[in-house]
Amino acid sequence: MMLFKNKVSAIFLCFLLISCQGNNSLRGKDNSNFKREIEQGLVLYNATLEQSNADGKILWRLTTKKATYTQDKKTAVLEDLKGNLFEHGKIILQVSAKRGEIKNDGKEIYLSEEIIAFDTRNKAEFKGQEVMWKPDEHFMIMTGEKGIKANHTKLVASAKEAKYNTKDQVVELSKNIVANTKNPPLQLKTEHLYWKIPDNKIIGNSFLEMVRYKDKLVTDKIKTNQAEVDLNTNIAVINGDVEYQSLKPP
To answer: Do both 99 and 152 map to the same domain?
Structure first.
């Protein structure tokens, strides 16, 4: 059940109570104007919307400058929004975007334009242009022509697509991936990569190139089809076909 809070007149409060009770019609002559307004769609300004699961635990809460509901009240279009994703009553993800849509009775949220998502548990930040967010299924899918960017104290990465499992805190990156570790400087290029944020590990299971730097100069290059890098120990385990090239010394 999706709820909203707003400093609006009593007419909007009535809409909230009626929609929560599953009643889509009003009775009485005095309510005829109110009924026509609902049929045309409801607009809220400076509103707060929230969604809970079947057990009554909050899944998400969003604030928006403007929320426009469709005639059937199943979809809401949002402008200039920010909010939080909850798990076990605690905020795990903070998001903001220029535009958004709430669909499927609050089970799906679509964000677009200037999206920022920040995980409060591991301090990973994601930026993109398009996001599909399913809070009760614990994942976000990030896409867009300009790609997505992920920033963390251990890793900075960019890709065309990303799927984030918010429960396990695992990012699956796809297409045109460039990942850079900060210390020591190491760059990975591949088409598919897993990033296990709590374990500080990145796992590549398709063809990838790794380049190691020292003082901004390339020292080594490795090509392989499987690798696992531990960002805590700075150790890379490489399997499969391996091609190694040392540039300094040659």
So the answer is: no
